[in-house]
Amino acid sequence: MMPQEKAVAAGLNFTKQEPGYLAMVVRTGNLLITSGHVSDLKGKLGADLSVEQGKQAARECAVKVLNSVWNFHGTLDGLRVLKLLGCVNSTLDFDEQHLVINGCSDLLHEIYGKTTDGYHARSALGFAQIPTGSAVEVEAIFEIKSA
After folding, report:
1. What is the pLDDT of residue 46?
2. Tens digits of residue pLDDT in 75-112
């Protein structure tokens, strides 16, 4: 099954986006670079949110990233996930940001393959605050395999 079919089979529904203040995706050469996409879930990991809730927020960010990529590129097919930056709204003593961002990586592995086009580099960092108080923000870089 192709990534677009896998996304639909996983229950993801993509919707048209209207252009906003900033581009959600830009292309340079054969790369698609996304803006940061924040979770609807608000709160701070290590205080009022569990790792499991954080993973769900990171998955939600992945869905939003994929929706933006779909809007820009027209399909999820023909892409390779290169890099993720996961930002976790967390307390100073919280040190499981990597487990939270697994929620995003897991979905991309499901759609693009864990050992093939979904195998990506990643950073998972803790932040004192994220815009709008969101629990997680994720940005990504994709390669267009066939331009």
Report:
1. 97
2. 999 999 999 999 999 999 999 999 999 999 999 999 99
CA 93 to chain centre: 24
> Interhelix angle for 97-112 vs 51-73, to 10°?
40
Q: What are the φ/ψ torsions at residue 121 (nearest 5 degrees)?
A: -80, 155
- What are φ and ψ of residue 46, in 5° steps? 95, -10
What's this model's pTM, rounded to 2 decimal places?
Answer: 0.96
Which of 64, 75, 67, 79 has the alpha carbon at shortest distance from 32?
79
Domain 34-144 class, CATH top level: alpha beta
Helix or strand run (H / E) with residue 71: helix 51-73
